[in-house]
Every structure is written in structure tokens, then in C-alpha cells.
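Progress note, project year one: complex with dinuclear copper ion.
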Amino acid sequence: MAMLVVFLSLIAFAAFADNINPPSGMQQVDPRKVSQTPPFDKPGLRRLPDGSYEAYYVSRVFSFTPATLTIPLGSKVTFYVTSADVVHGFFIPNTDINMMAVPGWVNEQTHTFSKSGEYLLICHEYCGLGHQNMFAKIEVR
Ligand code: CUA
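Model obtained:
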């Protein structure tokens, strides 16, 4: 019991004292209204004035929106991801992108695509019976 109290206290200390949070700009979104809330009402790729890109993704059982995305070779892309239902994974092998899609939160990570080809975006958090079919494709060219 004493060890349990020690461990839980350490977790609470780390979370509150060090302000540990999801990998996010602390941006929140109502998971029940994701499809009406900009910019998630129109998920996809947006070009910024500096030439970089933002990619907005919505995860829900058992798919990602957009299901396919084309990214120009050499682009720096910041991915913003949320979930409309349960916790999902958001993993693009061979890139820096590996995060969770958490209902209520917008998580973000950035990667520069310097190799052309087809990339797979997969859910790597078990989210239900169709989990293994939850993926999307990204084409870099
Ligand atoms: Cu979504 Cu596993």
C-alpha cells in the first residue's frame, strides 16, 4: 500500500508540478462537434504563406479523414489530429509522426518529407474490433 501511495504521488507530482500534458498546443475541441468545428469541418492540407503546410485529420472508428493526402516533395508539414470518439493512434512509419488522437484535444507534430513515395498512416492504439483496418495513405511527390 505504501509503495502504491508513493508511485501515485510521484505520478501526480510529475503531472502537476512539471505541467505534463498531451503533445499539443493545449488546443481543445468538443469531440461531439468535431465535424462542425473549423478547421476540422474541412480536414485536409492547407498551404501557409511561408510555404509550409498544415494537415488536419479527424480520427474515428475505423478511419482517418482525409483517407488519402498528396504532399509536395520537400514540404514541411505540421499534422493536427483529434478524435471524434475514442483514443486512436496516429503513426506514420519512417517519419517523426507518432502520437495519439485524443477526443477533446488537438495534438500536433511536424515532419519534413524529403523522400517521395507512398506513406502509410496507421492507428497503433487498440480502438475496437476494426482497429487493424484503420489506416490512410499519404502520397509524397
Ligand atoms: Cu483506431 Cu486503432
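Residues 62, 88-89, 123, 125-127, 131, 134 surround dinuclear copper ion (CB under 6 Å).
The first strand starts at residue 24 and ends at 28.
No further modelling is planned for this target in the current period.
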